[in-house]
C-alpha cells in the first residue's frame, strides 16, 4: 500500500466514523486499527504512534480530559457567554422541543415524523363544523359588519355564545367544548374564509386569555366561578398586556400593582392598588372580565421580603371601581371589538391574581407558556383559511372572467400568481395540520408556534396581493359584492399581533430555536451556571458531545455538498425522495452554521438580528418542508396532488437555499469558507417551473377532487359568495360545449358573453334543449354577478356626522319644497 493510499483510506475511515456519530472510543479504536494497518506496510513508525497517543489519550481518559481540556474551556465559556435574563430563561424553559429538535440535529429521523398519527376530527367536532359553524357563516354578512354596523349583529353574537364558540378550549366539566387544537384550527379556517371579524372574535377567547390561563393556573374557586360562565358566554374575556410604552418589549410594561391595605366590601384587607394604561386590547369594549398583566410591588413587605415581585396576571371584573373601558380603536376597516383600558388606583383583593397570591410574579412564565400554544393555532389557521378560500375563489374568477376572448387564468402571466396561491394553500394547510397535531400530542411548541405565526401570515400577505392582482378592479371596489377587499385591508393586523413579524423573524425563531433545539447548547449553559465538580462533569459531557456533533455536521456538509446527499437513505416514493435528501443536506448545513455562528459571534449573535433571521429562515423552511412531505405521505401520495406538492417543496427549498446564501454572503471570510464547503458545485434547489405553475393554474380553474381537497372544510354553501362562485364556475364549464355547438350551427364565432342571447339563438337554431337554454341564462346571471362591482349613491358613502348632516339637509330641502 502506498503512503498516499493509506492517508486517503485513513481520512475516509475517520470521515465515516465522524459522519456516523460514533463514540469517541469507537473513533479512537478506528484510528488505532488504521495505524496498525499502516504499521504492517511500514508507513507508520514510532513517531506517528506517539503523536496518535498524544492526541487520543487525553481525549479518552476522563480525569485528564476534564482537568486539562474541559476546565480551561469552561472558564473561557463563562467569560464570553452573557448571563440569561429571567424573562429569557422563562421563555426558554416554557414549552417543549418537538420535530424542530430533529431539524436542528443535522440528521432528522424521518420515520419519527411519518409515524406521527394523522390529524383527524372526532364525530362531535365534525358535527360542529357542519352544524353551528356552517350556520354562523350563513348568518354573517361581512359588508353589514364592516361597513354598516362596524360590529357583528346581535343575533350573531348570541349565536356564537349559545353554541359555545368562545369555549372551544374550555374543558367539558365546565361546560366547554374541549376541542382538539386541530379542530379549533379547522373552525377558525372556515370562519376566516368568510369574515376576518368573525374569525378574530372567535379566535381571541380561545387563544391566550383568561380561559386558557385559568385552566392552567387558576385556583379551584376561580375555575368554578369563571369557567362555566366563560363557556356559556355569560362572561366575555379579554387579555390586556400591551401598553403605549411597551408593545414588542412587553416585559417592560410600566403598569403597576402595589400591595397595600385598603377597604373591600366594608372590611380592611391586604390587596393590590392597580394603575394601568393598556391599548389595542381585543374584545375590551365588550369584555365583562379583563385579564390584566402588571408589575407587582410590595414596598411595605406585606407579603414577604421581595419588594419587586415581577409580572403578575389578575382577573378584574369590568365594573370594578376605577376601570375605564368601552372606547374603541378602529383597526383598518376590520372592526372587530378592540380598544384601550385604563385604571386609576383600582383596589382589588389578592385573590384576583390568577392562581392566588402564590402566583404573584409568575405572570411572564404563564404568558409565555400559553402563548406558544395559541400562536401555533389562531393566526396560522386564520391565514390558512383565508388562503384556501382565496385559492378556490381566484380559480373560479379566473375561469369566469374573460379578456382577449380567453379566461384570464389561461394567460401565462396570470398562471404565476395563481400557482403561488394554489401551492401556498396546500402548504399552509399542511403546516397548520402538523403544528396543531403536535399540540394535540401534548407539545407546547414555542419555536414552531413562532415559525407558523410568522410564515403563515407573511404568505397570506403575499398571496392576498396575488389574489388582488388576478381580480383587478373587482378586488378594489369595496361593497357587498367584494369578497376580497376587507381581508386584504386586515392583513397588517395579523402581521402585527402576537409578536409583530419583524421581531418574530429576527429575534424569536432562531433566538429561541438555537438554544432550545440544539442538542448541546442549553446543556452547556445550564452546566456552566452550576458550581463544583458536577458542573465540570456535565459541561465536559456537553462540550465534547458538541464537538463531535459539529465535526459530524462538517463532514456531512462537505460530503453532501459534493452531491453525497443523493446517497442518503430516506423514506418516500419517487416523487419526494430527492426532497427528503435535500432536506437532510440543509439540516446538516443549518446545524453546522449554527455552531459556526455561535462560535464566531458568541453572545453577540443575539444582536446580529439579520444573521439570526436567516438561520431562523433555514429552520423555518425545514419545518415547512417537513409539513408538506408529511401531508403528501399522510394523504397516500396522491398523483393528482403532485403539482401542488412539487410547488410547495421547490418554493420552500429554494427559499431555504437563498436564506443560507444570504447569510453566508454577510458573514465575511468565514461565510466564504462555509460557502466553499456547502456549495462547491453551486446552487442545488430550483424555483418551481413554469410547466408546474401551468398545471396548478389549470387545476384551480377546473372543479375536481384535487381542487376540492385544496379547499376542504371551507364555507361553500350556495347562500354565500363563495358557494355562488363555485356554482357559476361549474355552470360556465357546462356552457362551453353549448357555446361551441351554437357557434358551429350559426357558422359564427360568438364571444362568451350575453349567454342569455346565445340561449335564444341556440333555440332558434334548434341545437339546444330548453334545459340547456335555461342553463345558459342562469350562467349569464352568475357571470354578471361575478364580474360586476358595486356602485353607490354618494350619500351612502358618507359616515358619522357627515351622513347625519346630509340627511338633515335633504329633510330641510323637502320641507321647504
Ligand atoms: C389590532 C390589534 C390587536 C391586538 N390585541 C391585543 C390584545 O388583545 N392584548 C394585548 O395585550 N395586545 C394586543 N395587541 C398588541 C400586539 O400583540 C403587539 O404586541 C403589539 O402591537 C406590538 O407593539 P407595537 O404595535 O407597539 O409595535 P412596536 O413594539 O412599536 O414595534 C414596531 C416595529 O418594530 C419591530 N421591532 C420591535 N422590537 C424589535 C426587535 N428587537 N427586533 C426587530 N424588530 C423589532 C416590530 O416587529 C414592529 O415591526 C394588539 C395589537 C393590535 C394592533
Short synopsis of the structure:
The protein is α+β, with helices and mostly antiparallel strands and 817 residues long. Helix content is 62%, strand content 8%.
Description:
- This protein has 817 residues and is an alpha+beta fold.
- The strands form two sheets. Strands 1, 2, 3, 4, 5, 6 and 7 form a seven-stranded mixed β-sheet that branches. It has a two-stranded antiparallel ribbon with strand order 8-9.
- The longest helix has 38 residues, at 363-400.
- The mean pLDDT is 94.
- The site of flavin-adenine dinucleotide has 21 residues, from strand 1, strand 3, helix 19 and helix 20.
Which key features would you list for this structure?
817 residues, alpha+beta, two-stranded antiparallel sheet, binds flavin-adenine dinucleotide, seven-stranded mixed β-sheet
Average pLDDT figure: 94
What are the low-pLDDT stretches, counting only 5+ consecutive residues below 50?
Answer: none
What are the distinct ligands in this entry? flavin-adenine dinucleotide
Shape: flat
How large is the radius of gyration? 31 Å
**How many strand units?**
9
For the terminal residues, how far apart are their CA atoms? 116 Å
Count of DSSP helices? 32
Backbone structural class: alpha+beta
Q: What percent of residues are in strands?
A: 5-15%
Taking the sheet with the most strands, its summary is: 7 strands, mixed
Could you estimate the helical fraction of the residues in percent?
Answer: 55-70%
Amino acid at each position: 500500500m502506498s503512503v498516499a493510499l493509506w492517508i486517503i483510506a485513513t481520512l475516509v475511515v475517520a470521515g465515516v466514523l465522524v459522519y456516523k456519530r460514533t463514540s469517541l472510543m469507537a473513533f479512537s479504536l478506528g484510528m488505532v486499527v488504521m495505524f496498525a494497518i499502516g504499521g504492517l506496510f511500514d508507513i507508520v513508525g514510532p513517531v506517528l504512534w506517539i503523536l496518535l497517543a498524544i492526541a487520543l489519550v487525553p481525549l479518552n481518559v476522563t480525569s485528564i480530559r476534564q482537568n486539562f481540556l474541559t476546565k480551561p474551556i469552561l472558564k473561557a465559556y463563562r467569560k464570553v457567554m452573557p448571563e440569561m435574563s429571567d424573562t429569557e430563561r422563562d421563555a426558554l424553559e416554557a414549552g417543549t422541543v418537538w420535530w424542530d429538535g430533529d431539524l436542528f440535529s443535522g440528521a432528522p429521523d424521518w420515520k419519527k415524523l411519518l409515524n406521527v398519527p394523522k390529524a383527524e376530527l372526532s364525530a362531535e367536532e365534525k358535527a360542529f363544523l357542519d352544524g353551528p359553524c356552517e350556520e354562523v357563516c350563513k348568518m354573517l354578512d361581512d359588508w353589514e359588519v364592516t361597513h354598516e354596523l362596524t360590529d357583528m349583529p346581535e343575533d350573531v353574537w348570541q349565536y356564537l355564545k349559545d353554541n359555545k364558540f368562545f369555549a372551544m378550549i374550555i374543558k367539558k366539566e365546565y361546560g366547554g367544548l374541549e376541542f382538539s387544537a386541530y379542530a379549533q384550527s379547522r373552525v377558525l379556517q372556515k370562519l376566516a374564509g368568510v369574515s376576518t371579524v368573525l374569525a378574530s372574535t372567535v379566535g381571541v377567547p380561545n387563544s391566550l386569555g383568561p380561559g386558557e390561563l385559568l385552566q392552567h393556573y387558576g385556583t379551584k374557586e376561580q375555575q368554578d366561578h369563571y369557567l362555566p360562565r366563560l363557556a356559556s358566554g355569560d362572561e366575555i374575556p379579554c387579555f390586556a398586556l400591551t401598553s403605549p410604552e411597551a408593545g414588542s418589549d412587553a416585559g417592560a410594561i410600566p403598569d403597576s400593582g402595589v400591595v397595600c391595605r385598603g377597604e373591600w366590601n366594608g372590611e380592611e384587607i391586604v390587596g393590590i392598588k392597580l394603575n394601568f394604561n393598556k391599548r389595542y386590547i381585543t374584545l375590551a369594549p365588550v369584555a365583562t372580565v379583563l385579564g390584566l398583566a402588571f408589575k407587582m410591588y410590595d414596598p411595605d413587605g406585606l407579603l414577604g421580603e421581595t419588594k419587586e415581585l415581577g409580572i403578575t396576571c389578575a382577573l378584574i371584573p369590568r365594573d370594578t371601581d376605577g376601570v375605564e373601558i368601552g372606547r374603541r380603536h378602529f383597526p383598518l376597516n376590520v372592526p372587530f371589538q378592540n380598544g384601550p383600558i385604563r385604571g386609576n388606583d383600582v383596589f382589588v383583593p389578592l385573590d384576583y391574581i390568577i392562581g392566588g397570591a402564590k402566583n404573584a410574579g409568575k405572570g411572564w412564565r404563564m404568558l409565555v407558556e400559553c402563548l406558544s400554544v395559541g400562536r401555533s393555532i389562531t393566526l396560522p389557521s386564520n391565514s390558512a383559511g383565508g388562503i384556501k378560500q382565496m385559492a378556490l375563489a381566484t380559480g373560479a374568477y379566473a375561469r369566469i372572467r374573460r379578456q382577449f376572448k380567453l379566461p384570464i387564468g389561461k394567460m401565462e402571466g396570470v398562471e404565476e400568481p395563481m400557482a403561488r396561491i394554489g401551492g401556498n394553500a396546500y402548504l399552509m394547510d399542511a403546516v397548520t395540520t402538523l403544528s396543531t397535531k403536535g399540540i394535540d400530542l401534548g407539545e407546547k411548541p414555542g419555536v414552531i408556534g413562532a415559525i407558523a405565526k410568522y410564515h403563515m401570515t407573511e404568505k397570506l400577505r403575499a398571496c392576498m396581493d396575488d389574489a388582488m392582482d388576478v381580480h383587478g378592479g373587482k378586488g378594489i371596489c369595496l361593497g357587498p359584492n367584494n369578497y376580497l377587499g376587507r381581508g386584504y385591508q386586515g392583513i397588517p393586523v395579523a402581521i402585527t399581533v402576537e409578536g409583530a413579524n419583524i421581531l418574530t423573524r429576527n429575534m424569536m425563531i432562531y433566538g429561541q430555536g438555537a438554544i432550545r433545539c440544539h442538542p448541546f447548547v442549553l446543556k452547556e449553559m445550564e452546566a456552566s451556571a452550576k458550581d463544583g465538580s458536577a458542573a465540570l462533569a456535565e459541561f465536559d459531557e456537553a462540550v465534547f458531545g458538541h464537538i463531535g456533533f459539529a465535526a459530524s455536521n462538517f463532514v456531512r456538509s462537505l460530503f453532501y455538498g459534493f452531491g453525497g446527499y443523493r446517497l442518503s437513505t430516506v423514506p418516500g416514493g419517487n416523487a419526494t425522495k430527492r426532497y427528503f435528501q435535500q432536506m437532510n443536506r440543509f439540516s446538516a448545513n443549518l446545524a453546522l452554521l449554527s455552531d459556526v455562528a455561535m462560535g464566531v459571534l458568541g453572545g453577540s449573535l443575539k444582536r446580529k438580528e439579520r444573521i439570526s433571521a436567516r438561520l431562523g429562515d433555514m429552520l423555518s423552511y425545514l419545518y415547512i418542508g417537513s409539513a408538506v412531505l408529511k401531508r403528501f405521505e399522510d394523504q397516500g401520495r396522491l398523483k393528482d396532488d403532485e403539482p401542488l406538492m412539487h410547488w410547495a417543496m421547490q418554493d420552500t427549498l429554494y427559499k431555504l437555499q437563498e436564506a443560507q446564501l444570504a447569510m453566508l454572503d454577510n458573514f465575511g471570510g468565514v461565510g466564504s469558507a462555509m460557502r466553499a464547503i456547502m456549495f462547491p458545485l453551486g446552487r442545488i434547489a430550483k424555483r418551481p417551473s413554469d410547466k408546474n405553475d401551468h398545471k396548478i393554474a389549470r387545476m384551480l380553474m377546473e372543479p375536481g377532487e384535487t381542487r376540492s381537497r385544496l379547499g376542504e372544510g371551507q364555507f361553500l354553501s350556495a347562500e354565500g359568495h363563495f358557494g355562488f362562485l363555485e356554482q357559476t364556475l361549474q355552470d360556465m364549464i357546462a356552457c362551453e360545449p353549448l357555446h361551441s355547438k351554437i357557434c358551429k350551427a350559426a357558422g359564427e364565432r360568438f364571444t362568451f358573453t350575453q349567454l342569455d342571447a346565445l340561449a335564444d339563438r341556440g333555440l332558434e337554431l334548434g341545437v339546444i334543449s330548453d334545459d340547456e337554454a335555461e342553463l345558459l341564462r342562469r350562467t349569464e346571471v352568475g357571470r354578471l354577478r361575478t364580474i360586476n362591482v358595486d356602485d353607490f349613491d354618494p350619500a351612502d358613502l358618507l359616515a358619522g356626522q357627515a351622513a347625519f348632516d346630509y340627511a338633515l339637509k335633504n329633510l330641510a330641502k323637502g320641507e321647504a319644497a
